Amino acid sequence: MARFAVYLLVGVAIAAAIQTVEIIPEFLSDAPEQVADLLSRMWPIDIAYYPEGVHAALTETLHIASLGTLLALVMAIPVGLLAARNICPFTPLNLFAKLILVSSRSVNSLVWALLFVGIFGPGALAGTLAIAFRSIGFVGKLFGEAIEETARGPIEALDAAGAPWLSRLAFGYWPQVKPAFWSIALFRWDINVRESAVLGLVGAGGIGMILDSALNLFQWTRVATILLAIFVVVILAEIVVTFVRRRIL
Questions:
Q1: Cys-Cys crosslink for 172: which of 87, 122, 155, 196, Cβ 3.0 to 4.6 Å?
Q2: What is the DSSP letter of 200?
Q3: What would you report as the CA-atom Rg of the chain, rounded to the nearest whole angstrom?
Q4: Which of 59-63, 131-135, 165-169 shows the lowest per-residue confidence on average (mean pLDDT)?
Q5: Buried-state track 142-169, b at ≥16 Cβ within 10 A, e below 16
Q6: Is the whole model's pTM more than 0.90, yes or no?
Q7: Selecting from 3.60.110.10, 1.10.150.240, 2.20.28.120, 1.10.3720.10, what CATH number does the domain 44-248 have?
Q8: Which of 172, 147, 33 is nearest to 79 (CA)?
Q9: Looking at residues 8-27, what average pLDDT do you find?
Q10: Which of 238, 245, 249, 223 is nearest to 54 (CA)?
Q11: What separation in angstroms does the CA of 217 have from each of 18, 56, 58, 65, 230?
């Protein structure tokens, strides 16, 4: 009966969702024709546009992702330490750190970008801060959980030897969480490369700004060039992350 109730609730939820999105059958019927028309407008790809219009924006996108990830690591490490109960047993401070992590993850990167564009104006600074604040929750949560899963043996040995708190952290906890930390950092950078490519749609710098401009002006051959550049960068980022993880871990 419990399994049947779950299936029934899932079915009701799917039915309600289909009614809410208001699917129009006429639009679905001619979707293949619209896709073919759009692809025909994008061909041939305007490769000559890349040096003058895409390269600088693409480089800025990588800078936004890299600097945003670095800022997130700097801010997330202390929050992650406070969120770990074996490091910070003081409950109010522990709950406050977890509130920060949840707040960071609950706001989408585009919403963060809109907020910082309103504060600092359009540009790469808003995009960098949006990436950083969005990443704090991801990095801090996984880093805190990795600390909580560390073995107590080395910590107790250092404690018995009279080691201070920083020494216990550096020689007891860090060697155990270092592989997880670098894996989290690389994975988040890979995600941020993808997210930073679309932040320009709300004015937060990077390649998304020229993509938005090309879409608004119906320059479909340039849109194809931009999308191809984003696709290549994402694939290269995946290859780089895989290579670095193998060398480090």
A1: 155
A2: G
A3: 23
A4: 165-169
A5: bbbebbeebeeeebeebeeeebeeeebb
A6: no
A7: 1.10.3720.10
A8: 147
A9: 81
A10: 223
A11: 33, 20, 20, 27, 19
One-letter amino acid for residue 232 of the chain: V
Say what the alpha-carbon torsion angle 102, 103, 107, 111 is, to the nearest 10 degrees: -160
Give the span between the Cα atoms of 88 and 175, in whole angstroms: 19
Residue of 127, 103, 100, 105 lying closest to 116 (CA atoms): 127
Tell me what the pLDDT averaged over the chain comes to: 83
Coil, helix or strand for 218?
coil
Structural contact between residues 128 and 60, judged by C-beta atoms closer than 8 angstroms:
no
Phi and psi at 83, nearest 5°, equal: -80, -15
The pair of structure tokens assigned to 243 is 């290579």
Q: Two tokens at 55? A: 């390269």
CA 241 – CA 68 distance, rounded (Å): 16
pLDDT surpassing 80 at residue 62: yes
Q: What's the CA gap between 172 and 66, in Å, rounded? A: 29
Q: What is the C-alpha to C-alpha distance for residues 76 and 181, in angstroms, rounded to an integer?
A: 11
| Confidence band of 249 (pLDDT split at 50, 70, 90) | low
Q: What is the dihedral of CA 118, 119, 121, 127, to 10 degrees?
A: -90
Instruction: At 108, list the tokens.
Output: 């989408």
Neighbour-count burial of 45, counting CB atoms closer than 10 A to its CB (0-12 exposed, 13-18 middle, 19+ buried): middle
Decide: 111 and 79 in contact? Cβ < 8 Å: no
| Token pair recorded at residue 30 | 């001619």
| Contacting residues for 44 by C-beta, under 8 A, at least 6 apart | 221
Element (H, E) at 135: helix 124-148
